[in-house]
Amino acid sequence: MSYASSKPIKFTDTTFRDAHQSLLATRMRTEDMLPIAEKMDQVGFNSMEVWGGATFDAPLRFLKENPWERLRQLRAAIKKTKLQMLLRGQNIVGYRHYPDDTVRKFVELAATNGIDIFRVFDALNDPRNMQTALKAIHKAGAHAQLSFSYTISPVHNVETFVEQTRYLEEMGADSICIKDMAGLLSPFIARELVTRLKEEISVPIQLHSHYTSGMASMTYLEAIKAGVDIVDTAISSLAQSTSQPPLETMVAVLQGTPWDSKLNLDLLSEIATYIHDVREKYEAYECGMVGVDTNVLQFQVPGGMMSNLVNQLREQNALDRLQDVLDEVPIVRKEMGYPPLVTPSSQIVGTQATLNVLLGERYKTIPEEVKQYVRGYYGRPPAPIDPAIQKLVIGDEEPITCRPADLLEPAIPKARAELKGITSNIEDIIAYILFPQPALEFFEHRKDQESLSKLTPELQAAITAALLEMQPEPLKMPTIRRSNKNGSNPWVLTGRREAMGYD
User: Fold this and answer.
1) Per residue in 167-184, pLDDT tens?
2) pLDDT (tens digit, 9 = 90+) per residue, 399-448?
3) pLDDT higher than 60, residue 473
4) What is the DSSP letter of 376?
5) Could you tell me where the DSSP H helices lie in 336-411?
6) CA dist 390 to 59, 356, 373, 386, 493, Å?
7) Quick one: pLDDT at residue 314?
8) What angle do CA 346, 349, 352 make, to 5 degrees?
9) Cα separation, 310 vs 480, whole angstroms
10) What is the spatial distance between Cα 245 and Cα 292, in angstroms, rounded to a whole number?
11) Which entry of 148, 187, 194, 208 is 20 to 30 Å from 35 by CA?
12) Looking at residue 52, what DSSP letter applies?
């Protein structure tokens, strides 16, 4: 049998970003990455995804680490392999649109500190929200990989994705990523989609998927046969479930074929053993999904979004309404124009669906984010919003039709003024614009640590011991067993996970 491609497949490793964001609530610390970073640099990856997504927010908010410093340390340890990040277009690494000056400066700083490849996506697949980032990436001399978020709906099909990809290449994409954030892409559709793209697109095609539905490894294999150039995988000890397919399995499957990557399985085994031991340290933050969750095929709710819904319902003592919320999500999504369920649209749809169920009246309470979405401030939805819902949400107000960021004033001068006397460092200023309160708390923590470093070693040890005694045990989420309406296909959620977005 002849195939479209007969070249060795390339791999992007997600262990230091998406894998632990998906499985461990983005809690892996830099100190646990650095000891294995040099060995991973020897593997021969096309790139390593080490930054972006929630790995900017989580270090500031929970770990009290400087995300810029993490990038610098990883760049120093990983000398041969290209470093990659996930950029949410005009949302940068946050959950709303930021002004163009902030996007440009963020990209400049990220490139200066070591990012070679920027994977850019927009939650609504609105290319206008990628324009500023694209120009900034090229100005910095970096690689711009533009993405489309793969989803399933009456307005999404192979032809629409091919058309979107043509436009992304015309914009100036250096490569294209099929971003399957929920694991919805099936093997045979993947083969059809990649075949079409390779016929019409001249730049490399990369495939990113999650193992949530259990299809991703099969999907990768069919995409590879069809000619995809690069696939995203994670080291096996931090793979599967809501993470990516395991690297070692894909390497072994392709051995002796035209797509053989020639990667060293013995070296990968050493890395997997290390990551296995590290993962045990973060047991309290496990995503809790056991095996695969085929509910994602029915409701198109990614693993991270499922965690958000569970957390929201738990806070309201209403976990028994989870199935009702899952039934409501596709209805709200349809009314909102079928947005892909990825950060931040997944949170917008999920929150409104939850409120509709818990309050017993649809759209009785409408969050400001939903109003802004309907007004057009997140971009252009894939399909028109239901006119009745639009009127219910914003009345007779006319949605905007321009690029949303055109309405935003520059943020850096204002932030610089607000931080006068606190910090003048441009990295700090950008962090503050993105996450004001977590950044301020981090600055205070850093100041305290600097003061502590000036104390004698004996006093430092005494203070540290006292703080450790005060540290509470990690809160573990009780096991929750749920089943669908007819009582079949039970699934289990255990552990604990904060809502960190899903992309």
Assistant:
1) 999 999 999 999 999 999
2) 999 999 999 999 999 999 999 999 999 999 999 999 999 999 999 999 98
3) no
4) T
5) 345-358, 368-375, 387-394
6) 38, 16, 10, 6, 35
7) 82
8) 140
9) 10
10) 12
11) 208
12) E
